[in-house]
Design goal:
Strand content: 15-25%
Shape: elongated
Structural class: alpha+beta
Strand order of the largest sheet: 1-2
Number of strands: 6
Largest sheet: 2 strands, antiparallel
Number of helices: 5
Oligomer: single chain
Distance between the termini: 43 Å
Number of domains: 1
Length: 122
């Protein structure tokens, strides 16, 4: 056991597989974000998953480059011993157009589900 090599990270890691970083940091390194994105697009398709997406509502065709793949459960909220497979699992992915992703990130959209969208009143 050792400590993650990422600056200011105190998560313990298992060094038996020559790991230098914890799962939280490995999830965002190398080609893992690209793999996470592709698995999500393969599972959910090239469409915004926000049922109230303004682009979709106006019949605008969304191209793949207009989409972001977001973690449903934020990477930072996983425990220190979480694996990359847990963090970047397709069930923890949400495909959003760049507009909906920005609105979610900045708190204008509080929750997105296939049934409802809740806008923050803050």
């Amino acid at each position: 056991m050792d400590i993650c090599k990422k600056r200011n990270c105190t998560n313990m890691i298992d060094t038996s597989d020559d790991s230098k970083y914890c799962g939280k940091h490995k999830a965002r390194m190398g080609n893992r974000p690209k793999i996470f994105r592709q698995k999500a697009l393969d599972k959910y398709g090239v469409k915004c998953m926000n049922p109230d997406c303004i682009l979709t509502a106006h019949g605008i065709k969304i191209e793949e480059y207009m989409l972001d793949v977001d973690h449903i459960k934020e990477v930072s909220s996983f425990p220190g011993d979480a694996t990359v497979q847990e963090i970047n699992h397709p069930d923890n992915a949400m495909v959003l157009c760049k507009i909906c992703h920005a609105a979610k990130t900045h708190g204008y959209i509080k929750e997105i589900s296939t049934l409802k969208i809740i806008f923050s009143n803050d």
